[in-house]
Amino acid sequence: MRRPILLAAFAALVGCGDADRAAGGSSYETENAVAIQIMRPDGSPAANALVRARPFSWIDSALQDTTGDLHADSQGRISLRLPSGSWRLEALDRGMVAMLDVSSRSSFQDMGRLVLALPGRLAGYATPGARIGAAGLKHHAVAGVDGRFLFDSLPCGLHVLRAFGSSARAFALAKAGETKEVGGLHADTVGQILVDDFEDGDSRVWYGPWTGGGWWWVDADSSVHLSPDSVSQSPERSVFADGEGGKVLQFSAAFPAGASSTTWAQCGVDFGRRPLDLSGLVSVRFRARGIGTVALIVNIDSASWDEVPRAEIVLDTFWQEFEVSASHLQLPTSSGKTLDSAALVAKLRNAVGLTWSLSSSGDLWLDEIRLVGPSPALLWGASPPP
Prior knowledge:
The chain folds into 3 domains: 3-115, Immunoglobulin-like (Sandwich); 120-187, Carboxypeptidase-like, regulatory domain (Immunoglobulin-like, Sandwich); 211-380, Galactose-binding lectin (Jelly Rolls, Sandwich). Helix content is 6%, strand content 42%. It is built from 4 helices and 27 strands. Mean pLDDT is 85; it is low at 1-15 and 17-30.
């Protein structure tokens, strides 16, 4: 994982604190420092705005901590000397907030302008009484007797929420002026990767921010009618409450009369910008319900459609737990080819995603997708998120 790649992403999110380059050579340059100018949405400088700087791995406690709290000057400018490492800056002024991640190094960095915006709210659930912090920010929430917690004033952008004294965490995208559900906190477990539980409601996989990708998509042959409409362009529209207190991904496909055998409707998840070595995959586990037969397909980098392993499952109108063993994955019969264990392992070393494919009119609901067998280290490497 290369965290510096994320710096521009936090600043570039629509409605968030946009960081625009300011003119270089300003008088407030100092060696080994980070400089920034805080601006209000109307374009005026945020004079005397409060700026907090915390190590990105820091989780707020109930103790008072003002380390790194400074105020901008009359032009909204501030210069911070920071020890080497990854830091999160938060600016606050008159109910508006913004944040930016920086990687401190032994040179001056002019980060340009950071534009304030309305805060976002993140709600979820944890063990009753648990204290939950937001990595790199002086914010924490306490889960009530019903387990519900709420962060009501977070800057928009990507956050790691973590319970104190626990490795349980959630990744969440806060949007200015909106309330987003993040679901529960999950701890990494040996030999299992949680791909998605959809509780963030935006079709972003649980590990997406840290692996350079990981998004869901829904698409179909041009002759097939999908519901919700245009879910391929706005996949978050196909994530909604399932009536059991959680969120799921769902789509329906109506095939035309006399549709050919090549007509299709699918949903899937891309693992990110690099293939994953799933040679140690034991099974793919997920909850599903619906109408029809669906093929679970492991997408392989640079492989044609008849060269990717798959297994078919029959859906029921009631929720079921499915576990598709890697040993049951085979090439489609139309290819005229078979896979032995060595060939399957070779393919799984270059896995790029999962697809659920309908070949006739049907309905699919998905939840709690997990990869059983691979270690979470496959995603996190030596530098897991806080």
